[in-house]
Specification:
The protein has about 120 residues and is mostly beta strands. The protein has one helix and eleven strands; from the N terminus they run E-E-E-H-E-E-E-E-E-E-E-E. Strands 2, 4, 5, 6, 9, 10 and 11 form a seven-stranded mixed β-sheet that branches. It has a four-stranded antiparallel β-sheet with strand order 1-3-8-7, with no helix packed on it. A hairpin with a 6-residue loop joins strand 4 and strand 5. The termini are far apart. The mean pLDDT is about 95.
């Protein structure tokens, strides 16, 4: 069974930084668009950033210039570097792997809490 294991969430003051990590299997990682989503209570899960197998990236407008997504193909891991954090970034962050070779089937991590205090 494919697993996505996230780490790196926590509590940080506004203006601070955090780095999220998500490790998975090689079979998924090498065939998936990897992404980070976030969700707050009562709201829909939203895309924060994604990266293709070729390294092309997409960002939500709200995080452009502050967040950077990257992938380490040797470690089968995707990262989300979050700088200049704001209280509005507070959410549960979920790692996602969209498997191109399985009709874009989505796999999800368990979620990690990011809390930004003002």
């Amino acid at each position: 069974q494919v697993q996505l294991v996230e780490s790196g969430g926590g509590l940080v003051q506004a203006g601070g930084s955090l780095r999220l990590s998500c490790a998975t299997s090689r079979s998924l990682f090498s065939n998936a668009v990897m992404g980070w989503y976030r969700q707050t209570p009562g709201k829909q899960r939203e895309l924060v950033a994604s990266i293709t197998t070729d390294g092309m990236t997409t960002y939500a407008d709200s995080v452009k210039g502050r967040f950077t997504i990257s992938r380490d193909n040797a470690k089968n891991t995707v990262y989300l570097q979050m700088n200049s954090l704001k209280p509005d970034d507070t959410a549960v962050y979920y790692c996602n792997g969209r498997a191109i070779h399985i009709m874009n089937y989505s796999y999800w991590g368990q979620g990690t809490q990011v809390t930004v205090s003002s």
